[in-house]
Specification:
single chain, about 220 residues, six-stranded mixed sheet, three-stranded antiparallel sheet
Length: about 220
């Protein structure tokens, strides 16, 4: 079996899990590995993995996935280590959908391994139901999260009639900036901005600063 692996970001490399996962996946077939994005290049070099992870081309992650699609591999892995399960799963959702828009037939299984070694780490089979997912989940002690769960939990807006914008990947205590204006501070890892008549009127998961809202003025949350 031909397997393509896309490694994204420095965290998965610096944690040591990139090479651990690559070696584990080698048990399932012939493996080729390339970097997705540019942020991990220095980490690859520092870890002396240039002979393992191809960093010769600067490509966004979805294009790195597409290269393996064009090479007609049998299986593609996306390895990532987001700063939280939210950022990691939303990242995977966006990358997978960008990739799916670039290909003709979505017939190659894509599996994301997210935050290995962490209690909230997960494996996401984006378009498949392969036995290898359950096997790796047990070996790595990671939960299997479905694409539907990612969509329902992080992407879908509950009430389409409300003009709102979900902000992904926040942490408590961070400033909330809209159009370069600080309008509040988070007190949760889930944040939703709510607007009426093109003005932000409420927030879920944080506290608004009135002065910042006055300075911000009208805003289109969709853009």
């Amino acid at each position: 079996m031909k397997i393509g692996i896309v490694v994204h970001g420095p965290n998965i490399i610096d944690s040591g899990y990139a090479i651990k996962l690559i070696n584990l996946i080698k048990n399932y077939g012939d493996v080729s590995v390339r970097l997705g994005g540019t942020m991990g290049r220095t980490a690859v070099i520092d870890a002396s993995l240039e002979d393992v992870i191809d960093i010769t081309r600067k490509l966004v992650p979805s294009d790195s996935l597409k290269i393996f699609y064009d090479d007609n591999v049998d299986l593609i892995f996306l390895l990532n280590y987001g700063k939280s399960d939210v950022t990691g799963q939303v990242f995977g959702y966006k990358v997978y959908n960008h990739y799916a828009d670039k290909i003709a037939d979505n017939n190659i299984p894509v599996i994301q391994i997210e935050r290995p070694g962490e209690a909230d780490g997960s494996i996401i089979p984006w378009n498949n139901d392969l036995e290898i997912v359950d096997e790796l989940s047990k070996k790595l002690n990671l939960s299997v999260v479905s694409p539907e769960e990612v969509y329902e939990k992080h992407i879908k807006q509950d009430d389409a009639s409300v003009n709102q914008r979900i902000v992904h990947g926040v942490s408590p205590g961070e400033n909330i900036m809209v159009n370069s204006v600080v309008i509040g501070k988070t007190n949760s890892d889930k944040l939703t901005l709510i607007a009426k008549d093109n003005h932000i009127v409420d927030i879920v998961g944080g506290e608004l600063k009135q002065h910042g809202l006055e300075k911000l003025g009208e805003v289109d949350l969709e853009s």
